[in-house]
Design a protein that fits this description.
It is built from three helices and five strands, in the order H-E-H-E-E-E-E-H. It is of the alpha+beta class and about 160 residues long. Strand 2 (about 65-70) and strand 3 form a beta hairpin.
Length: about 160
């Protein structure tokens, strides 16, 4: 699929790069000074390559489906669903601070299905930044590795509002 309008570029980012793992066309879609607004450790083309490669190592059959695109000016909002089978470890080196609970989990063989929303800003026909929001706890639950909450201390009570 070719095209240069902003919505098409964002769609290609998910369907061509993420879903296939073929990164040879990344320079045509991602700006060299790209910034991930949620995970600032992901910067530039090299950061996006590391992110995609890391996720595909953990979920080799990863598929992204763009469910909805809304484009206005240089901004494109994408609602997408991704599915994959957990066959490898998601390395901490992906730069995903938001997914710390998922990183390092041994392969479970379980399938996950997540929905996320991303706001992408483009300049000169390339994605220059992204703000993608997902639910990592949803992924942990599907993998069966939901972190346990610390139990409340026996006899502990919350302070009464009048004493605050």
């Amino acid at each position: 699929m070719q095209g240069t309008d902003n919505a098409t570029i964002v769609r290609r980012f998910y369907t061509e790069l993420w879903s296939t793992g073929k990164l040879d066309g990344i320079e045509g879609l991602i700006a060299s000074d790209f910034v991930d607004r949620v995970n600032p450790g992901i910067r530039g083309i090299a950061g996006v390559k590391q992110l995609i490669t890391g996720f595909r190592a953990a979920f080799p059959d990863l598929v992204f489906t763009v469910d909805e695109l809304i484009s206005q000016g240089d901004a494109v909002v994408a609602r997408f669903t991704c599915t994959g089978t957990h066959r490898g470890v998601l390395a901490a080196s992906t730069g995903l601070e938001a997914l710390q609970g998922v990183q390092g989990v041994p392969p479970t063989g379980k399938q996950v299905k997540l929905t996320a929303i991303g706001i992408h800003h483009l300049a000169d026909g390339k994605i220059k930044d992204a703000y993608v929001v997902s639910d990592p706890l949803q992924m942990l639950r599907q993998l069966g590795v939901t972190p346990m909450m610390a139990p409340a201390a026996v006899g502990a009570t919350a302070p009464h509002p009048s004493t605050m």
